[in-house]
Write a structure and sequence with these properties.
This protein is an alpha+beta fold. It is built from eleven helices and nine strands. It has two domains: 95 residues, Phosphorylase Kinase, domain 1, CATH 3.30.200; 190 residues, Aminoglycoside 3'-phosphotransferase, Chain: A, domain 2 (Alpha-Beta Complex), CATH 3.90.1200.
C-alpha cells in the first residue's frame, strides 16, 4: 500500500547478505539496530550501546578518517563528551569502504537548548585545551568562502584585524564606531588557534536536563580561531526564530563559562562584535528574511 515501508530500512546501507555478515562480524547477532540517514557524509547505524559509522560514498572516506582521528585525540586528552573509537574495519563483504564502531553516548537531542549555553561554554573550553591530531583538514568549508565569512577570518587575524574593522565601519557607514570595533577585534585576534569542533549546533548535542552528555559529528574539527565554536548563527533557524532577542545574553552566558575555565577575559563584547558585524555585512549583500536573519540596524544596536 502507498506509504508502507517495504523491506528493512537497514538495507539502504547494507543489502541482506552484507547485513548478515555485518551482524556476525560485530557480534550483534539479532540485536535491534536503527538507522539515522540525516548526515551528509555518513550513514549511522545505532545499537543499544554502540554506533556504527559508514561513509556514504568514496569521497566521504576522508571525512570519516578525519573524524576518527579527532575522536582518538579527544580520548587521549581526557575529553569524555565525544564518542570513543572501539573498532575500525575494512571488509568488502560488508561494505566497499572502511567503517567504524564508536561508543554510544547517553542522553537525547535537547528540545530547547537554551539552558545548555553555560555548560556548553565550559565543554568548549575543555575541547580547546586538547592537543589536536596531526592531520590535514580534508576539505574547505563552502560557507567560509562567502564574503562575510572571509571578512571574519580577516577580522580574527592579528595582521588584518584593524583593516577588517575599518572595512566594516566604512561599508556600514559607522565611522564613529571604528575605534571601538578595532579595539574589540584586536582582543579577539590575540587569541591563539585551538582545536575546534567547527559545526556546533543543537542537533550535535546530547543532553539530560541541563547537563550536556555528548557532542557528536566531529567531521569539521580543525585548528582554528576559538570563536568558531560560538558561531550561534550556524544553529538552526528554529533557535534563532524562538530566541532571536536573547542572543546577546546567550553569547555572554557561554563565553563567561568558557573564559572561567581558560582564565581569559570574561567580557563577551569581542565575541559578539565579531559575529554581529559578520551578520550585518552579510545582510548588506543579501537582506534575506528579517524574521530569520534580523536587520543591519538590529545587529549594530547590539554592539553599540
Amino acid at each position: 500500500m502507498p506509504g508502507d515501508v517495504i523491506g528493512d530500512p537497514l538495507w539502504a546501507v547494507l543489502i541482506p547478505p552484507r547485513l548478515a555478515r555485518f551482524r556476525e562480524l560485530t557480534g550483534l547477532g539479532d540485536a535491534a539496530i536503527t538507522a539515522d540517514f540525516s548526515g551528509w557524509n555518513k550513514y549511522v547505524l545505532l545499537a543499544r550501546d554502540r554506533v556504527f559509522l559508514f561513509p556514504r560514498e568514496a569521497g566521504n572516506v576522508e571525512w570519516l578518517t578525519h573524524e576518527l582521528a579527532v575522536y582518538r585525540a579527544l580520548a587521549a586528552g581526557g575529553f569524555t563528551l565525544a564518542p570513543r573509537v572501539r573498532w575500525q574495519w575494512q571488509d568488502e563483504d560488508v561494505y566497499p569502504f572502511p567503517f567504524a564502531e564508536v561508543t554510544r553516548l547517553p542522553g537525547a537531542r535537547p528540545a530547547d537548548p537554551v539552558g545548555l549555553f553555560g555548560p556548553l561554554g565550559a565543554a568548549v573550553a575543555q575541547i580547546h585545551q586538547i592537543r589536536p591530531p596531526d592531520l590535514r583538514w580534508p576539505r574547505r568549508i563552502d560557507r567560509h568562502q562567502r564574503p562575510a565569512y572571509r571578512w571574519l577570518h580577516r577580522a580574527l587575524e592579528p595582521a588584518t584585524s584593524a583593516d577588517a574593522a575599518a572595512e566594516a565601519a566604512r561599508r556600514l557607514d559607522q565611522p564613529g564606531q571604528l575605534a571601538r570595533w578595532q579595539s574589540r577585534l584586536a582582543v579577539a585576534a590575540g587569541l591563539d588557534a585551538v582545536l575546534v569542533h567547527g559545526d556546533l549546533h543543537e542537533d550535535q548535542l546530547l543532553a539530560a536536563g541541563d547537563e550536556i552528555t555528548g557532542i557528536l559529528d566531529w567531521e569539521t574539527a580543525r585548528v582554528d580561531h576559538p570563536f568558531w565554536d560560538f558561531d550561534l548563527g550556524e544553529w538552526g533557524t528554529g533557535l534563532w526564530r524562538a530566541r532571536r532577542y536573547e542572543f546577546s545574553r546567550l553569547w555572554a552566558t557561554a563565553w563567561r563559562e568558557y573564559a572561567a575555565v581558560r582564565s581569559l577575559d570574561p567580557d563577551p563584547a569581542p565575541l559578539e562584535t565579531a559575529f554581529r558585524l559578520r551578520e550585518a555585512l552579510a545582510l548588506l549583500d543579501d537582506p534575506d528574511d528579517p524574521a530569520v536573519s534580523g536587520t543591519v540596524a538590529e545587529h549594530l544596536a547590539a554592539i553599540s
